[in-house]
Amino acid sequence: LSVAPQRALLLPLVHNLLYSEMLKNDAKKLVEELGSKEIKNIQFRSSWVFIAAKGFQLPNNIQREKINHSDQTKNRYKGWPAEIQIEGCIPRNLM
Fold first, then answer.
1. Side by side, which strands form the sheet with 47-50?
2. Domain membership flag for residue 43
3. What is the pTM of this model?
4. Does residue 55 belong to any structural domain of this protein?
5. Residue 22 dihedral angles phi and psi, to the nearest 5°
6. Residue 54 near residue 34 (C-beta atoms within 8 A)
7. Contacts of 9 (CB under 8 A, 6+ apart)
């Protein structure tokens, strides 16, 4: 993230069950600085998606982040939460 060029669109996502143990605190801090409010809330088998811009502002009406935690009473797949997605249009002239 720190080496991403200016005017870059960043689209990190998580689907790895060991993610919370693999990502270091300094990387989580960088994602937080880009605007994530959920990066430190990711748990075992959580699904998480985040969109951020480096060097320009995203439109206010774009959903930027979504998280879905594994919950045995609600999981769609055996031990795994349902897929997640965020939608929106980013005008080309912003990038």
1. 13-14, 47-50, 65-68
2. yes
3. 0.79
4. yes
5. -90, -35
6. yes
7. 51, 52, 53, 90, 95
